[in-house]
Amino acid sequence: MEASQPHSSSKTRYDYIITGAGCAGLSLLMRLMEDAFFKDKQILLIDASTKQINDRTWCFWENGAGLFESIVKHSWAKVQFASDHFSGLLDLGPYQYKMIEGLDFYQMVLNKAKLIDNIHFLQERVLKISDGGAAITVSTASGDFIADFVFNSIPAFASSKIIPGKKGQYHLLQHFKGWVIETEEPIFDPSIATLMDFQVDQSAGTTFMYVMPVSDKKALVEYTLFTETLLPEAAYGKALRDYISAKLKIKQYQVAHEEFGIIPMTNQSFSLQEGRLVQMGGAGGQIKGSSGYAFQFIQKRTAAIITGLKKGHTYFNHKNLKQIMGEFYDTVLLNVLVKRKMNGDQIFSQIFEKNPPISVLRFLDNESSFVEDLKIMKSVPTRIFFPAAIQELQR
Ligand SMILES: Cc1cc2nc3c(=O)[nH]c(=O)nc-3n(C[C@H](O)[C@H](O)[C@H](O)COP(=O)(O)OP(=O)(O)OC[C@H]3O[C@@H](n4cnc5c(N)ncnc54)[C@H](O)[C@@H]3O)c2cc1C
Question: Using an 8 Å Cβ cutoff, are 216 and 168 in contact?
Fold first, then answer.
């Protein structure tokens, strides 16, 4: 990100300060820029990073065109699911599984913001955020910046911290290494992505491969695990090499890009707001505990903040019943996974085998109907899930 002088002096009061220019910060900024209601608001965006690196690829499903449609790199209407228990090609119906590259996302939003006078950038580390009641102050090495609200997605300033080992709280790590591989020969079918291929060693815990072909000669292949601890570094590359040669039957390829990520999967409840400090993204608990997907939850959260601001609200911490139910289902699934009552490959196989893919996607989005929820619950063994649900309800 190109740093620009944040307005005339460090004493300037902004309407909004956005701390963190990642997925959540830039999604909120994009929505503020798109809406004429905010054209006179003074907005300061602060991030320590230049945001010039393609540090992640976002995949998510969406019904129709979204706010970031113009930078969707590839999309798939059908996805493959594979395991030793069930394999099938899933038609996503009205949904498309979409891929966006991090750098395209950062550049699109920041380039648009550069053209708008009331948006100011500061490339600096945030040191402190202090809510003084009448205003909130963000401190960096170059000074203090005051605002009506701070919209934060910097994990260090989350109002809730993850406390491993706390009773009733489950913590898994979703960790993955992805390689974008290029082949000389046309090998991939770019119309079909592999959402989950569990036909890999499950001894460490829930483990699957993910294959996202963007052309017949190029695909992102990602090795993903939901476990308590990370693997030795060399294990990720070995698993990718083995899968590419044994399962994809590719002998000659180049690794054009590599990404590694760790996403917390937890049932911990996150505070959405304290005073003038409003939380978003991972800092606001928008990473789904049972799947690690966050992109679309961040879109919903930032859209809800915009709606609230336009209505003159000062509280942005509302959760609807479906969100609360979704968090409960996540807790039950994490209970089962963490206590190893059933393997993840079996759970996902039964859910995908016995339900229409559209219902499963809606369930994972916390948007399914009560009837769909019941059907999904019936598709997993009640002797395992019912006691886990009762245990969680009693907490
Ligand atoms: C490699 C990877 C791949 C992922 N893939 C997917 C996916 O396919 N689908 C999906 O739904 N989710 C995915 N996720 C999960 C989630 O969508 C991302 O983590 C997402 O970026 C979270 O958004 P965020 O805004 O909360 O955090 P971030 O995007 O990480 O933004 C936080 C920002 O805060 C800045 N920052 C940190 N500390 C400071 C400081 N002290 N001062 C100033 N700035 C600071 C950082 O530079 C960063 O720009 C992925 C995560 C990773 C790590």
Answer: no
**CATH number of the domain at 13-55+100-160+269-318, please?**
3.50.50.60
Residue 111 C-alpha from the chain's centroid: 23
| pTM score | 0.96
Residues 6+ apart with CB under 8 A from 91: 77, 78, 357
User: In this predicted model, what pLDDT tens digit does every residue of 61-113 receive, in sequence order?
Assistant: 999 999 999 999 999 999 999 999 999 999 999 999 999 999 999 999 999 99
C-alpha to C-alpha distance for 286 and 294, rounded to whole angstroms: 6
Pocket of ligand 1 (CB under 6 A): 20-25, 46-49, 56, 58-60, 125-126, 153-154, 156, 259, 261, 263, 281-283, 287, 293-295, 298
Closest to 289 in 3D by CA, of 248, 241, 246, 324: 324
Domain-by-domain residue ranges, the chain? 13-55+100-160+269-318, 171-266, 322-393
pLDDT one-digit tens code per residue, 14-31: 999 999 999 999 999 999
